[in-house]
Write a structure and sequence with these properties.
mainly beta, 8 strands, Immunoglobulin-like, 2 domains, 1 helix, 4-stranded antiparallel beta sheet
């Protein structure tokens, strides 16, 4: 099946950057770790929830940069010898593409779940660091 290209369609001129962003996002998010949910709370509010059991607030970062919501997690190396490791504590980077009208409000880490609340806005956004409570 041939690959669809925005630049090949006469009504989608100038969308090359969008096509590149979608391709790079697909490459970054090809891993299923950590699992996540996306909820629509009402017409103007959304929530992304990631399962990050074992991660502390200091191990996580949530940053909005341009149209991307970037969630990263990295823990310091464990100095003890594990006899069995069944809990995945590997570093991760999850990238979500946000529409121009969506802004991250806050995030909360509770019971191993990192929830990021977002809402629809009317103004343009800049780079912002999202605080984790």
């Amino acid at each position: 099946m041939p690959k669809f290209s925005f630049s090949a369609h006469p009504y989608l001129l100038g969308f090359d950057a969008l096509e590149q962003m979608l391709e790079s996002n697909a490459k970054i998010n090809n891993d299923s770790y950590p699992p996540y949910n996306i909820e629509q709370l009402d017409d103007n509010r959304f929530r992304i929830t990631l399962a990050v059991a074992g991660f502390a607030i200091s191990d996580l970062s949530v940053v909005v940069e341009g149209p991307q919501l970037i969630v990263c997690g990295e823990q310091p190396q464990n100095v003890s010898e594990l006899l069995h490791q069944g809990i995945a504590l590997r570093p991760f980077k999850r990238v979500f593409v946000l529409a121009d009208c969506i802004e991250a409000m806050d995030s909360r880490l509770q019971n191993g779940l990192l929830s990021i609340n977002m809402h629809r806005i009317t103004q343009n956004r800049a780079i912002q660091k999202v605080k984790i409570y």
